Amino acid sequence: MKIKRKTIAYLAVDILLSFAAYSTVYMLFGARFFPSDYGKVALIGLIIGICNLLGFIGAGVYRRLWRYASFNDLSYIIWGVFLGQALGYLMAYLIVPWLVPLRIMVTQALMFFLLAVAMRGLVRSLYEEMHSIKTHADWIGKRVLIIGAGSAGVMVAREIKTAMRGQYNAIGFIDDDPAKLNCWIYGIKVLGSFKELPDLVSKYKIEELIIAIPRAEKSVIKKIAALSLPASVRMKVIPGINDLISGRVDVKRFRDVQVEDLLGRAPIVTDLDSVAAYLKGKKVLITGAGGSIGSELCRQVAHFAPEALIMLGRGENSIYEIELECRELFPNLQIHSVIRDIRDRAAINKFFDDYKPQVVFHAAAHKHVPLMEKCPEEAFKNNVLGTKNLAEAAAAHHCELFVMISTDKAIRPTSVMGATKRLAEMIVNKLNDTSDTKFVSVRFGNVLGSRGSVVPLFRRQIAKGGPITITHPDMQRYFMTIPEAVQLVIQAGALGHGGEVFILDMGEPVRIVELAENLIRLSGLTVGQDIKIVYSGIRAGEKLYEELLSPEEIKSTTKHERIFVADVPNGIGDDFFKELETMRLQLDKGDTSGVLDFIRKWVTDYRPPTDEAIAAANEAAAAATDEATATAAATATATDTAEAAVTTDNN
């Protein structure tokens, strides 16, 4: 086996260090503990030196890259010294023979360890210094601050100092731990705490912030986003700590902060592999498969090897796209794409006869609140009658599980959309009592990035130069990401025994205006100057605040710490289904007059806002718009004055 020149150099230096430690011990303890024959003294030194090298080889010391050494690498030297010293003094006893006193063995082992560590520390320092001289790294690359001087921050600093020179120039660390203030890590100083961040960004002309606190990333991002930092300063985050440890990605893969990072809570993480066994080998139907939630359900369900994935929807283009994607990703999976309208009871019954699904995820629904206020009969047909068609077909065909996706707008609803989803919950809950199919519902809040949600709208408005339109300055919502929503749905299928309504602990609600402001900042623009925010007024059916539970509902825990079960009073009487069938016949004849009366009768806490309440809220929104406009104008004037002063000074 070919030995590298670098390894030969280490071997030569280490044997010299071993002789140095041995000679020092000889001088410290005098000749009274050693043989009187100088030849034997030299032989013992040679034996111990060779054995120390063998110990280092056995411990893997020479397989380490010491220019990248960390504290953990010291364990290899410790084991190497222990093995080498034990072997050396054993051989000395057998060959010379000489029984070494314990104090000499311990002292020499300690001295050799310190010398070996010092030599390798010097190698690393020289390497870093030479690398620093080789490039002009003190002044080239983007000027960055590393947020967090913990283990992840140290990893980032090391990469910047070695593999990313010329790309980034790490100016300093930011950390709230007072014990770290003014300390140096990899030649980078801890400059201050979070509250000093705006001043430090300005003082050092910082271009980017690299957030290296994986376990508290969300709260840190939210805290930084609330600071008055220049719009040109970008935020980046490192991969999650689990991805770093597993080796799926490395620390150099910084990414831009996304709006999902601004939820202010840790993402919901579910070990789906341990709970989704109920999908393996089953025929799984997903309705609304072309939508945001439905398409993500298709992707995640396909991972668990169902016998067949059946994608049902009304929009042919969206169904075609998700079918194409799934066929590319899962070429061996049996996939059926079907165009059907869930409101067509006969077509749905025939569909169940033909495909015989065993698990149903019902994601098809009308969800746009203002549009459904204008067309309540369409919301009723799709969300109520369509759900009833699917649920009754599932029960009649003895499906194992039916999971319906609901919404937090079903709680004390003020909108037709929310009220119809509450009726849908009541229907599946009632059918659970009379069939062998397990029926469960899953409630969650607004889904970031889904079709019709505010984030795509805000991004389009920003791309056009503004303004961003928000209904009211106090409007707030619970938010979750599409993968979180789908994980909850799949998890609910595993946890449900039938009849439950599952809800997600989504943290604190987010003010829509804060979400808009953060999106503007993430786009590198300034709120009120580059992009204005305009309040358009509350629309029919909208709430200022959403709820996760009504006062009548009781929350209980599940096996998942962030998923709860709501004890929901059903409220369905014996004549409910009879009246619902009468309502269906009226709608088939084009008579829509009874829809709202039906909703009011059976959803007893349905309370649409009065015209007076909407007018009062919109008046407040208009006043907030005027105030924001005045503030932006004052800020712009101050900025212009400051720029003029700078120009005058420069001239």
Helix fraction, binned, reads: 40-55%
* Percent of sequence in beta strands: 5-15%
CATH architectural group of the largest domain: 3-Layer(aba) Sandwich
User: In CATH, what is the homologous superfamily of the largest domain?
Assistant: NAD(P)-binding Rossmann-like Domain
> Compute the gyration radius: what is it?
34 Å
CATH class of the largest domain: Alpha Beta
Shape: elongated
Q: Enumerate the strands of the largest sheet in spatial order, edge to edge or round the barrel.
A: 10-9-8-11-12-13-18-22-21
Concise summary:
By secondary structure, the chain is an alpha/beta fold.
Model description:
- By secondary structure, this protein is of the alpha/beta class.
- The chain is 49% helix and 14% strand.
- It is built from 21 helices and 22 strands.
- It has a nine-stranded mixed sheet with strand order 10-9-8-11-12-13-18-22-21, with helices on both faces. Strands 3-4-2-1-5-6-7 form a seven-stranded mixed sheet, sandwiched between helices. Strands 14-17 form a two-stranded parallel ribbon.
- Helix 1 (5-29) crosses helix 4, helix 2 (38-59) runs antiparallel to helix 3 (74-95) and helix 14 (376-396) runs parallel beside helix 15 (416-434).
- It is elongated and about 115 Å long.
- Mean pLDDT is 78; it is low at 133-138, 241-252 and 628-651.
